[in-house]
Design a protein that fits this description.
This protein is of the alpha/beta class. The chain has one domain: Rossmann fold, CATH 3.40.50. It is 30% helix and 15% strand. It has 4 helices and 5 strands. Strand 3, helix 3 and strand 4 form a beta-alpha-beta unit. The longest helix has 10 residues. It is globular, with a radius of gyration of 13 Å.
Length: 101
């Protein structure tokens, strides 16, 4: 997240545990889910650092929020999530890291 911020991107952290404590991460409010991010914040990319079994629900939430890209981090491979996102017109990247790319 800090790398992306240094490159000029605004990153909104989603972490149920951190949200429950009211923590901020790198100056940004943490939300428990994509659905809790205020509607006036445009979500361009959803970067998933969760287990592959959690990715389909995240893909559905990304579609519902109008995200443009679903990015599954290194080691996160979910054909189901890819199908959900691509069916809705999202770009999908799997098993890759934005910093490396």
């Amino acid at each position: 997240m800090s790398y992306m911020q240094r490159k000029g991107f605004r990153c909104i952290p989603v972490n149920p545990r951190a949200a429950a404590t009211g923590d901020k991460i790198l100056g940004e409010t943490v939300y428990a889910s994509l659905n809790e991010i205020p509607a006036d914040i445009q979500i361009d990319m959803v970067d998933v650092f969760r287990a592959a079994r959690d990715a389909p629900a995240i893909a559905e939430a990304a579609v519902a929020r109008g995200a443009k890209t679903l990015w599954l981090q290194l080691g996160v491979i979910s054909v189901e999530s890819k199908g959900i996102a691509e069916s809705a017109g999202l770009d999908v990247v799997m098993d890759r890291c934005p910093k490396i790319e």
